[in-house]
């Protein structure tokens, strides 16, 4: 996960407080906290999908070694359903494929979140520079 910077603005009581700047910092802080939470959630989901993909891959590898006429059962709730080897392989391949797609989507979402925070930071910096120039 990328580095998220927090800025603390200390206002001198003698100096006039720029309410617009204070509001922008408050918005940035809330946006950064929200983004951090969303990025952590995306990381957790990526980890879970990676584990699921690995489990499906290992199961698929073990099933390959079995003869075609082996009776296989799929757990559904509290019961098991008899499945042919081909159906089990198809389901495992589908799980791996969907996990890959979801992982890619989550990584794109995470990079987007990090980019929006960076843009907000740049806007605040720009605002600070313009205030100092005045």
Describe this structure in words.
- It is a single chain.
- The protein is mostly helical and 134 residues long.
- It has a domain at 47-56 and 71-116.
- Helix content is 71%, strand content 7%.
- The chain is built from two helices and two strands, in the order H-E-E-H.
- The protein has a two-stranded antiparallel sheet with strand order 1-2.
- Strand 1 and strand 2 (79-83) form a beta hairpin.
- Helix 1 (19-64) packs antiparallel against helix 2 (85-133).
- The longest helix is centred in the last third of the chain and has 49 residues, at 85-133.
- The protein is rod-shaped.
- This is Prefoldin subunit 1.
- Belongs to the prefoldin subunit beta family.
- It comes from Hucho hucho.
Largest sheet: 2 strands, antiparallel
Strand content: 5-15%
Q: Number of helical segments?
A: 2
What order do the helices and strands follow? Answer: HEEH
Terminal residue distance: 37 Å
The class by helix and strand makeup works out as mainly alpha
Taken from the alpha-carbon principal axes, the silhouette is rod-shaped
Q: In percent, how helical is the residue content?
A: over 70%
- Kindly state the number of beta strands: 2
Give the uncertain stretches in residue-range form: 9-16
* Quaternary form: single chain
Radius of gyration: 25 Å
Widest sheet: strand ordering: 1-2
Mean pLDDT: 84
């Amino acid at each position: 996960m990328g580095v998220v910077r927090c800025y603390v603005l200390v206002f001198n009581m003698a100096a006039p407080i720029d309410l617009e700047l204070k509001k922008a910092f408050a918005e940035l802080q809330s946006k950064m906290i929200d983004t951090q939470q969303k990025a952590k959630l995306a990381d957790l989901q990526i980890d879970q999908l990676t584990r699921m993909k690995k489990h499906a891959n290992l199961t698929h590898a073990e099933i390959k070694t079995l003869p075609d006429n082996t009776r296989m059962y799929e757990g559904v709730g509290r019961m098991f359903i008899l499945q042919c080897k081909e159906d089990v392989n198809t389901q495992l391949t589908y799980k791996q494929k969907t996990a890959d797609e979801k992982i890619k989507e989550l990584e794109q979402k995470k990079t987007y979140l990090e980019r929006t925070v960076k843009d907000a930071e740049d806007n605040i910096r720009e605002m600070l520079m313009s205030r100092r120039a005045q």
